[in-house]
Write a structure and sequence with these properties.
The protein is mainly α. Helices cover about 80% and strands about 0% of the residues. It starts with 5 loop residues before the first helix and ends in a 17-residue tail after the last helix.
């Protein structure tokens, strides 16, 4: 068989490097790299905060940070989304930037006013200084959304990734410098501010444009009408994410808010690692299923079949991750955060188990979008948010564990809502998912027994700390997937991922 010569291979390689697909792969790689670096920097900063701050100081940082993020969501509006949604955005760019500056400035002034009240009325100058730093973060954040949108609209994703990587490096350097200098909580707020200022400055250099202050009231009304839905949706999602920290801190105190936020942050780190690939996989396979037939009815059925197989795979893979996290919560907290954070362990176990019931949510948005029923999702998000916040309001006064149990109950409601939406409007067969995942529960039980057995033997074997955690993870993973493989071999379990029509094997 003739093989291409070296010159032909080089020519093909050069053509591929110039092709749109090569650019997509390259941009995707840079975007993923920026995401990974961002996650590593944030987790490292979180561990440093837990190691260097008291639970009360960490709680105050988490509590004030939650409010700051809500105000940032208001200041950012939907300015970036408007730019991306407008083909001739260049003609309106200065006006959009002017509104971004105005919104960021107004929210900043509100934050500085709150700072003055905290300093003058409550006589808490240190807390006031931290709130002032958070307030200074809002304006550059609002303007940065406009520049980010311009860079994305021009297809310069690599530039955006590089800017964010530089920002994360600068922010983390400021955090470390602040810790070494004894700044305390100020170190972490200053790190955020340094990140945002560097990102804005680098974006201005990359775009080579400065806004002219210009405002047309007719256009202003148009932009505000566009942005209000985005702001409302983002605010609801953010409030739901941080409501536990806010309510626990308000009812029980800042130390308890610190413990609760630490547990949430560990679970969030794992959830992002699971959720991001799950969402990408769902969009990729469900879009392919939607394009498989010109007949809308046949396409919907194929989308439902693909979603059913995908959900089976997702549940099978995610179950041992979250249950395993709950099993090793106590030693993990002691190794990563220290013995003083021991109260976080029980919260971590409950919140990890809660996350099991939220697994279907990764598929809901792409499934409803591609089946033409995305309008069903906002009411569902609102219902889930109201239930979650309502249970927190009712149970947070009774303690951290009561608040965590309330979130577990809210996740049951979220699971039932997801099942109904996916079954009724996405043609997903949940009876098939439950049947195909039934043997996974047996494998999960085997994993739990193995991990608990090794954990009780670890003391006798003089294995503790990080080595003990690593061995528990390795043993649990091995037992779980070996049991699944044995069940598949004996005909007790089915893996859609291994079949010819599985979501990972579609041609």
């Amino acid at each position: 068989m003739l093989r291409p010569s070296g010159s032909r291979l080089r020519l093909r390689g050069a053509r591929w490097l110039r092709s749109p697909m090569a650019r997509i792969v390259g941009d995707g790689t840079w975007t993923l790299t920026a995401k990974i670096i961002s996650q590593v920097a944030q987790i490292a900063a979180f561990i440093l905060a837990a190691r260097t701050l008291t639970s009360h100081e960490f709680g105050f940082y988490a509590y004030s940070s939650a409010f700051a993020l809500l105000f940032v969501a208001i200041a950012e509006g939907g300015w970036g989304e408007f730019v991306l949604n407008t083909p001739e955005y260049r003609h309106r760019l200065s006006e959009v930037a002017t509104i971004a500056i105005a919104s960021g400035g107004l929210v900043t002034m509100f934050g500085l006013s709150a700072t003055a009240v905290i300093d003058w009325y409550f006589q808490q100058p240190e807390e006031a200084a931290i709130i002032a730093l958070f307030s200074c973060w809002i304006l550059p954040s609002a303007l940065s959304t406009v520049y980010d949108a311009v860079i994305v609209a021009e297809g310069r994703l690599r530039d955006l990734a590089l800017i964010r990587i530089l920002g994360e490096a600068a922010g983390f350097a400021v955090v470390v410098l602040g810790i070494l200098s004894g700044w305390g909580v100020v170190s972490f707020v200053a790190g955020r501010l340094a990140y945002q200022l560097l990102v804005l400055a680098a974006s201005i250099v990359a775009v080579r444009w400065l806004p002219a202050i210009r405002l047309d009231w007719t256009f202003c009304r148009e932009l505000l009408a566009f942005s209000r839905h985005i702001v409302a949706n983002r605010f609801i999602i953010l409030f739901r994410s941080y409501s536990a920290t806010i309510l626990v801190g308000s009812f029980l105190g800042l130390a308890e808010a610190g413990y609760y936020r630490a547990a949430e942050r560990i679970v969030a780190a794992i959830s992002e690692l699971v959720g991001e690939p799950a969402r990408i996989l769902a969009w990729f396979n469900l879009r392919k299923a939607a394009a498989s037939s010109d007949d809308p009815a046949a396409a919907r059925l194929e989308i439902g079949r693909t979603a059913t197989s995908l959900m089976t795979v997702l549940v099978t893979v995610s179950l041992p991750i979250y249950v395993g996290l709950a099993l090793i919560a106590d030693p993990l907290v002691r190794v990563v955060l220290g013995d003083t954070w021991a109260p976080t362990a029980t919260l971590l176990s409950l919140l990890a188990l809660k996350q099991v019931l939220l697994i279907p949510g990764y598929v809901t948005e792409p499934l409803l979008t591609l089946s033409g029923n995305i309008r069903r999702m906002p009411p569902a998000v609102l219902i889930n948010s109201l239930v979650g916040v309502g249970l927190l309001l009712a149970l947070a006064p009774f303690g951290m564990l009561a608040a965590a149990l309330g979130q577990c109950a809210a996740s049951v409601v979220s699971f039932l809502v997801s099942v109904r939406l996916q079954s009724r409007y996405g043609s997903m067969r949940w009876d098939t998912v439950l049947r195909d995942c039934s043997f996974s529960l047996f494998a999960l039980l085997a994993m739990i027994v193995a991990v608990i057995t090794f954990s009780s033997m670890a003391g006798m074997l003089s294995v503790a700390g990080a080595p003990s955690i690593a061995l528990q993870v390795a043993i649990g993973t091995l037992i779980y997937f070996a049991t699944l493989a044995a069940g598949h071999r004996l005909g007790f379990a089915t893996f859609p991922v291994l079949g010819p029509r599985g979501p990972l094997n579609r041609g």
